[in-house]
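Thread: Modeling a multi-component assembly for a lab meeting

Hi all, long-time lurker, first post. My supervisor asked me to bring a structural picture of a complex we are working on to next week's group meeting, and I have zero experience with this. I have the sequence lines for every component (470 residues in total). Could someone generate the structure of the whole assembly? Inputs are pasted exactly as I received them:
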Amino acid sequence: STHVLWFRKDLRLEDNTALQEALNSLSPNDKLLCIFHINEQQLHPKTHSHDYFFSTLDHFISNAKESNLTIHVLTGEITDAFDRLLQLYPDITKVFFNLDNRGFGQKRDLSITSFLESKNIQVNYFEENHLHQAETIKKPDGTPYKMFTPYYKQWRQLPKRSFQKINLKQYSHQLICHEDNFLLGTQALKELLANRNTDFSNIVGEQLANKQLNTFIMAYLDSYDTTRDFPFLDSTSRLSPYLSTGTISIRKIYQACQHLPDSNGKETFIKELAWRDFYHMIYFYHPNQYKEELKEKYRQLPWQQENINFEKWTNGQTGFPIIDAAMRQLNETGWMHNRLRMLVASFLTKDLLIDWRLGERYFSEQLIDYDAASNIGGWQWAASTGTDAVPYFRIFNPTTQGQKFDQQAEFIKKFVPELAQLPSKYCHEPSLLPIELQKELNFEVGINYPLPIVDHKMARNRVLEWFKEY
Ligand code: FAD
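Re: Modeling a multi-component assembly
Sure thing. I ran the full set together rather than chain by chain. Output:
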């Protein structure tokens, strides 16, 4: 009979549970057909994360071919696509995939599972993308945690599944190779890529993901606790894009650290991996969280909607250099450093009183590592509306944060080139640049770089009053 392996956001041949289980299930006369389904509904709007995902998919398909694994591309509504597949392979008896247990993926998985089961096809699915699944870690009373620290205590102690090597060669004669029947799907993928930005060659694929992991571990892991907050050092792992496409397994990252001697850097890094699981768990229990504040008392906060300040924030034209540098990094590269994500989210919500949902949506369009659970979690954290969020009275000062975490303005100068010629100390507050220096440098504040769009001190008091009322 024919068994089907369905790839999704798990574009890797190493340590992939569905792939391993599908291979294990093959008896000598069975064949394995590998598929990917392009879901047209999810292709709009065109976002950085889609561009990145499809570039990764394209690379993955070519790379898999080198290991004699053909990935056949299906298009169209999912049950129709499977209907057509069953006409070509009436002997399909088993389907394997790694589960997508959130949002659209969850609905699709539920409907396709009942469709396949109605045809007497066995559906085998696996929880794959996290070290601990949403329902694994609970309070002693059986309810999910709201606060990270007690969640993390349990998370840290629980044993974790280990990394598995996959030997594809052993099964090469059982893998169904390229079939003309799938040319339509291949063509659809080509067309899709032709209309997109696919300039991601230096950050796609398993090989580069592994290289990145090794470089990070060798060069930065030990000092991660002290260096991770300084954007210009670029010393965080940069593994998030690979994780968002499933190019690297989370078990591999964890295990690579686990084997190393203890250090504060290692412990802090592992804690970040737990935050990823924590936000996934919160999203699992609150699937509507992108619509409403988790803290009920804040659901009536009168957030402002799109306005000119929102536009200035998205374009990196707020007059606060660290905020502008961060937003321009996002717009130009599709990625932003974690400390800066916290700062720009705080600025949008606390200084401008603009709805965190708008910021969340903008990030979802721009980030190549977009992950709904972490993004919504991060935004609700910054807006003080999440379950375990920054208290509303802890408000980042964008100027002093810049001075603290980018003292020499190296990051600012890189992404806000109009400030590059200024002495570093003025890069944090260009409006303080003395008139004589402005003349000497041919730089006029308000002309060459915007004046701050808001008075932070005023904004701070305003938001404090605002939250106090609720
Ligand atoms: P590292 O510091 O090297 O961390 C290693 C890994 O741990 C990351 O790749 C990520 O998977 C995980 N991680 C680290 N910090 C967090 C965190 N705070 N929450 C959840 N997981 C974390 N992360 C995303 O992957 N996608 C998003 O869409 C996203 N949106 C965010 C929005 C806001 C407002 C904030 C404050 C944070 C957001 N994060 C998001 C979390 C974090 O900023 C990124 O994971 C991190 O910057 C990625 O860079 P890195 O791989 O070098 O991280």
